[in-house]
Design brief:
- Pfam families: FecCD (PF01032).
- It is found in: Cell membrane.
- It comes from Advenella kashmirensis W13003.
- With 336 residues, this protein is mainly α.
- The chain has 14 helices and no strands.
- The chain has one domain: ABC transporter involved in vitamin B12 uptake, BtuC (Orthogonal Bundle), CATH 1.10.3470.
- The chain is globular.
- It starts with 9 loop residues before the first helix and ends with a helix.
């Protein structure tokens, strides 16, 4: 049930969410070790002066951090919504595909061997590991005659993730030098990323978002039930494959860019479904906007709660998301 102050029009709600996201992004550009006024931030964006130190900070560091938060938040939220629709499981999240486990395993196992030294190298390794693991989970989960059984995908994801986490821990015991790399991914952060990393990430994220938008109408039919979808002429197997590719592109790129950021893909779809019509043509843009907004807020709070120290954004999303998810769980239990 919506609160009275929430607009009933989904278009109006999307517009409001867009404005709030932009405002949060502008505020985030002012926050750092040295505060910068909104006026100076605006000048840095519209009329940058290469000799102005504040403008350089905004252009080279803070702007990239805001863009990373928007891309990662939107990707994880949409991927989470797609996973919950794909498995018909409201507790599903992108991690169900083994994305996090595969990314960390690739970084810890391969980075010391090839001597990866830049963050771009780590990103590529993490994306390859996440993508390969997601493909493996899909292949195992959908293999056999019971292709329509979503539980197979859940079990395959849980089993392969646990296996890779165990291998990762064993690799860290053998090679202590990889500990810094794994802590880097476990914390989850938007700091230290530049526009080079954004340029590497934007193409697969945009492809995943556009692909999921193109499948929105078909997704509306799929969640009504497999029998109904087949009766209406949907190729359910191909649809699930395309949705899985979108999830892997979105979540794999997000994890490679920001590390392990939990609860965004789990909680945001629940919030959006309470505000928007049950139509993926509205839900998907809602997921993207509210996911971006949540990660921007989490990153902003992480920088101002304990100055001059920063709380990793992965910890902040857990602090924000876990209480809300507990509330949802208790509420659903009361109505059961």
């Amino acid at each position: 049930m919506k609160a009275a102050f929430i607009p009933s029009s989904p278009a109006a709600l999307l517009a409001i969410a867009s404005v709030v996201t932009i405002l949060c992004g502008m505020i985030a550009l002012t926050v750092g070790q040295e505060p910068i006024s909104l006026q100076e931030v605006w000048r840095a964006l519209t009329q940058p002066d290469p000799h102005n130190m504040d403008h350089a900070v905004v252009q080279t560091s803070r702007l990239a951090r805001v863009v990373v938060a928007v891309l990662v938040g939107a990707s994880l939220a949409v991927a989470g919504g797609l996973m919950q629709a794909l498995t018909l499981n409201p507790l599903a999240s992108p991690g169900l595909f083994g994305i996090n486990a595969g990314a960390m395993f690739a970084v810890v196992l391969i980075a010391p061997v090839i001597g990866a030294v830049s963050f771009s190298h780590f990103m590529l390794l993490a994306f390859v590991g996440a993508g390969a693991t997601g493909a493996l989970v899909y292949a195992v989960g959908m293999r056999g005659p019971a292709r329509s059984d979503q539980a197979r995908l859940v079990l395959a994801g849980a089993a392969i993730s646990s296996l890779l986490f165990s291998f990762t821990q064993a690799a860290l015991v053998i090679n202590q030098d990889g500990l810094d790399s794994i802590l880097f991914w476990l914390a989850g952060s938007t700091a230290g990323r530049g526009m080079n990393e954004v340029r590497l990430a934007w193409a697969p994220i945009v492809l995943g978002l556009l692909g999921s938008a193109a499948l929105a109408r078909h997704l509306n039919i799929l969640v009504a039930g497999e029998a109904i979808a087949r009766g209406l002429g949907q190729n359910v197997g191909r649809l699930r494959l395309l949705l899985s590719v979108c999830v892997i592109l979105l979540a794999g790129t997000a994890v490679s860019l920001a590390g392990t950021v939990g609860f965004v893909g789990l909680v945001v779809p629940h919030i959006v479904r309470r505000l928007f019509p049950n139509d993926f043509r509205w839900l998907l843009p809602g997921y993207a906007l509210f996911g971006a907004l949540l990660l921007l807020l989490a990153d902003l709070l992480g920088r101002i709660v304990l100055p001059p120290e920063e709380i990793p954004v992965g910890a902040m999303t857990a602090l924000i998301g876990a209480p809300y998810f507990i509330y949802l769980t208790r509420r659903s239990g009361q109505h059961a």
